[in-house]
Structure formats: structure tokens, C-alpha cells
């Protein structure tokens, strides 16, 4: 939320010697008169130069580069609203193909009736899946004459913020398994200690935001199958594959994490991450249409025709879906495989370089994901927050943060190696990190009394 600055008189001053902009322009209210389009462009364009450089942004998982042909398709579809299926039937046909391609990549069972939809990122996808599982749980409880006032969701502390948003926004108890100083993922034992007949679902991660690791998905699936057989509790397993859904099928195809696990009833993925399309797009796929209660699907006729809709948002751009279809056609399975392996190789080179400094310990899954997460070998000698600040002065955007409870004493640096981050960029980053370490710019700062002044993030 942003404060509405009702009393601010801040102005854009005239610039370029008044060649285009020859009068002050208000910043926080709509100007009384318009201006030349080139002038408006220059005002916005120049101010955006203060943003970070996407090429040096290792904080974000989101795709920040596209081929010229993809950019052209994005411009051509800028005015098409994804919701207008009657007006743009071919766009909707492409939407269906994309969902089918994603579902088949995740081994959607042909003997059932898998369904899914594109979303505005994984946050909407996860909330839609959890709403479906909450409604299904409530319907089962009503049919059994049991109370429906205490639904809960079992997750690990390694989840993205959107999971906690769901529990808070939709009044579901969050049963969160905390981390440990040397254990950062969700285990079957964690789930067993928290699951009960009021559990609407268990969330497991294929690639965590914090460490790029994988929850114990196969063991959790086995536990949920046993619980159903022994206690009769139907607890769906949802896989949050936001980061790993477009990596594991190509880097570790033998890994069992998707609909090959019997308890998995739904999966989300962020197409705008390693699906290699610009933001914002996600996809949610259900194992069978019975996992999506009919009452959650709205049938809209006031735009022409009957348009079934399952979303939190209504209007949305179509360009990401179009670009995902383009990218699937452009790269094919082998293309994704080559890109994924190249990212893994570059991440491995970055990891090896960091470890050679002797200053770091690696925490991430080095085999599966191009996400490099390190902590200081000796926190008394290296403050990762100070190092992050020093690198920012060189243009690198590398986040430092404490791990969630109960591992909050562990501070880490995370670097996401994307398709556009070449081996040359890896070498340049390692040179800068080595230089900053040599200059002592990662050392903890002390106050005049000798106490370490810790930066609070």
C-alpha cells in the first residue's frame, strides 16, 4: 500500500534545456495539460535509469530477457484481454494448449481428467489450488455431518509468502514446521506431527526460495497414502513447483515429485521463472476435475458466449500465455534441457569459485537448481549483509537475509543464475567478490566499544 500524497507539490523540472519539457510537471497529481509523447517518454525513461540493472539482478527468479520475436508478439497482443474468450477464441485455444503442455510435462495421468488454468504468477495459482482443497474438505465434512470451522494447512517454514497470505486471507490455520539451523526443508516427520482430519492439504516445495532445496516429497507422499489407508483421511498433496517445475523435468527426469506420486492432487509453476517468459504468469494443474469443485467455476455470459472462469483476478494480459506457447515451440524439450543444464553449469562454476575463497559454505542443492545459497564460513569474520551492500555499489543485486525460525541465526547470500547470466558474468562477479573480501568490505563493523554492529534486515 502506498500513501496518497494529497499535499505534495513535488515537480518534474524542465530538462534537456527545455527542448521537449519546457514547464514543471507535477509528480503526485494528474497534470492539467498533456505533453508531447516523446517528452512523456523521456521523463519516464530517464527516471527508470535509477532502477537496478536486470542483467546484474541475481535476487530475482523472474525472467528479464526475451528474444526480439517474443517482444514483437508481446507488443502485438498488448490489447488482448485474456478473459475475453468469445472475442479472442484463438488466444483461448492457445491457453488450452499451454495448460495441456504443462500438465503433460508433469505427468498428468491420462486415465483421469486433468484440468488447469494460467494465472497471474504462482501466488494466484497456489491460492486457487488451496481454495479448491478447502472447499472439497468442507464438502466432505458436511456430507459426513462433521464440523467445518477449523481447517488447517500443513507447510514448512521454507514456503513463499503467498502460502501465509492464503491462510490469513481465507481463515485457515497455518501449521508451519520450523526450520533447524542445519535442516531447511519439510520432512515426513514434520507433516505427521501436524496433520489431522481438519487438514485441507499439505504443501511441499520443489525448490525453496530460501535455499533452492527440495522438500522430502516422496516420503511425504508415502506418509499421506498410509494415513489415508489407516485413518481414512483424504489429505491432498500440493506441490509448489514455482521454481523447480521447469527445471527438474530437464535436469532430473528420474526424480519423483509430480503426478507420478499418488497423493499429489495439484501442482503450480511460475512460467515467468524458468519457463522463460516475462512476468507475470503461473499455471495451476489439478490431477482430476473432481479436485476442482464445480461451485468455484463461474460461467460468464455478458461478454458473449459461455465462458467458464476460475481465477481471483478477472481482466489480465494475454501476452505471457502467448509468449509461453511461442517459447515451447521455439525451444522444444531439448532446448529447455540445454538451457537448464547451462544454468546448472554456470551455477556450479559460481559455487566452486565462492568455495575457493574459503569464506563460504554452500547450502543449496547443487544438482538440481541454478540457485546458489551460501553462508559465511566464520560469521565473526564475514558479515554477508555488509558484503551485499559492498557489491551493490558495484551494481550487483544480491540479497542477504536471515533464515526463518528456528534457523534465524543463519544469515545467507542468494544468487539466482538465469539464462542471461553467462559464464563471463560469473567470472566478473567472482572477481568483484574476491576484491571486496580482500578489501575487508565484508568484515563485521564494530562500534567504539568493540561490539559488532549488526545490520538488521
UniProtKB/TrEMBL annotation:
GO biological process, alphabetically ordered: L-glutamate catabolic process
Keywords: Decarboxylase, Lyase, Pyridoxal phosphate
Known cofactor(s): pyridoxal 5'-phosphate
Example of a GO cellular component annotation carried by this entry: cytosol
Xref: Pfam families: Pyridoxal_deC
EC number: 4.1.1.15
UniProt feature, compositional bias: Basic and acidic residues: 444-457
Domain of life: Bacteria
Region (Disordered), start-end ranges: 438-457
The reaction(s) this protein catalyses: L-glutamate + H(+) = 4-aminobutanoate + CO2
Stretch forming the signal peptide: none
EC category: lyase
Residues with N6-(pyridoxal phosphate)lysine modification: 273
Protein name per its UniProtKB record: Glutamate decarboxylase
Lineage of the organism: Bacteria, Bacillati, Actinomycetota, Thermoleophilia, Solirubrobacterales
